[in-house]
Amino acid sequence: MLSEIKEMPERAKYFFEQSPAYQLPTGVPYIGMGSSLFAPLAFKYMGIDIYPEMASEFNNYLQRGKKYSNGVLLSQSGRSTEVLWCADLFEKFTAITNTANSPLAKFATADSIILLMADEEKYSSSKTYINTLLALFKGFGMDVTHAVQLLFDNESKYQQQGKEIAGAIYTLIKNKNLNGLYITGSGPNIATALQAALIMSESTKLNFNGMAMPQYDHGPKETAKNSVVINIAAQGKSYDRTMQLAETITKAGATVFTIEEPAVSENESVINNIVPFNYMAYYLSELLQINDVFLVGDKVTEVN
After folding, report:
1. Could you count the other beta carbons within 10 Å of the beta carbon of residue 288?
2. What is d(CA 212, CA 24) in angstroms, rounded to the nearest whole number?
3. What residues contact residue 231 under an 8 Å CB cut-off, 6+ apart?
4. For labeling, which of 70, 79, 176, 289 is most exposed (least CB within 10 Å)?
5. Contact present, 254 and 198 (Cβ < 8 Å)
6. pLDDT in tens, 81-129
7. What are residue 232's DSSP bridge partners?
């Protein structure tokens, strides 16, 4: 797991430099599950005209028996059952996947295929999530050269931060009856919060709740006493509110940590802000002596 996390900068650079030029469509659904849904959600909150949808619910509740002319289907494995259900709902679609010979990539109406070039990944999404973000940045013509370089320049900082917060959370778990574990973000980093909660929960077997910071402010903050809240901050419209809320819930008894990469814009920060959580997931699972990430299911969710 640690070796996969450490490969993130190199695989990101490889995709950024080696993937061919392409343009992604706007005004269409972007269909995925888990990490493959969170990535396009970040771009919705950057103001890009796309419609991220959960594949299972899109298929079961939104299709209304019609075919869509175009869309983008995302599945890092290319085997997620719910995403494959949706492939039949489009006259044509762009497939974003890490696996060239996957069912999604080979689907008859896959009009174009964007390969993530993240190499093999056995544990929680790390390389593939970063590269999915990069695939979308590139397809929307957004230059994130600086953010990619920071993956190299600040790798040790991200690792140390993740390790320190993991250690602090472990101490709290051992010494307190924790009332909740929350990860919050705003705008594009709502996606980061959701992704962070997913990988933290998968790896540690603890229930981390990812949500929008304003949504946390609308009620869940009442659980602040004896809780852990990790705020994802970025210089944007919600920054001051994030800092003020942190002060409020700290006074109410919460232990608050902040993840922030101040050297990039709010939009670019989604690339960098997720990295400390990957290390945090690794080190906290190690402290908890969790040896296997997937006990109840598999890395790829396949349903009947």
Report:
1. 17
2. 26
3. 184, 185, 213, 242, 245, 246, 256, 257, 258, 259
4. 289
5. no
6. 999 999 999 999 999 999 999 999 999 999 999 999 987 877 677 899 9
7. 259
